[in-house]
Design brief:
Number of helices: 4
Distance between the termini: 11 Å
Number of domains: 1
InterPro entries: EmrE-like, UPF0060
Transmembrane segments: 7-29, 35-54, 63-81, 87-107
Helix content: over 70%
Subcellular location: Cell membrane
Number of strands: 0
Strand content: under 5%
Membrane topology: Multi-pass membrane protein
Keywords: Cell membrane, Membrane, Transmembrane, Transmembrane helix
Shape: flat
Length: 109
């Protein structure tokens, strides 16, 4: 259980790093924020890449599970950072995706 909790937490950290790395250029390009946001964005995407390498599973399986956690993290970002309440379809889709991630993870461990 500790191992799975560690990897889920690592996936969430990885997703946050990727979202920050993509959200900051979005702010620059679409909301006329400072071009200097590209510096922390690049650093965040570097951290994202490094974090993704910390998973010991096969790369394709890791990316598949990460993709599911990323979607759920993006929905939480929508709610927490952008202050947009997720719809019931966002929540339902997130739960379906988490079920798929669990099938991949527990089916291979």
């Amino acid at each position: 259980m500790i191992k799975s909790t560690y990897f889920v937490g690592l996936f969430f950290l990885t997703a946050i790093a990727e979202i920050i790395g993509c959200y900051l250029p979005y702010l620059w390009l679409n909301q006329n924020k400072s071009v200097w946001l590209l510096v922390p964005a690049a650093l965040s995407l570097t951290v994202f890449s490094w974090l993704l390498t910390l998973h010991p599973d096969d790369a394709g399986r890791t990316y598949a599970m990460y993709g599911g956690i990323y979607v759920v993290t993006a929905i939480l970002w929508l709610w927490g950072i952008e202050r947009v309440v997720p719809s019931r379809w966002d929540i339902t889709g997130g739960l379906v995706i988490l079920f798929g991630v669990a099938i991949i993870y527990f089916g291979n461990n």
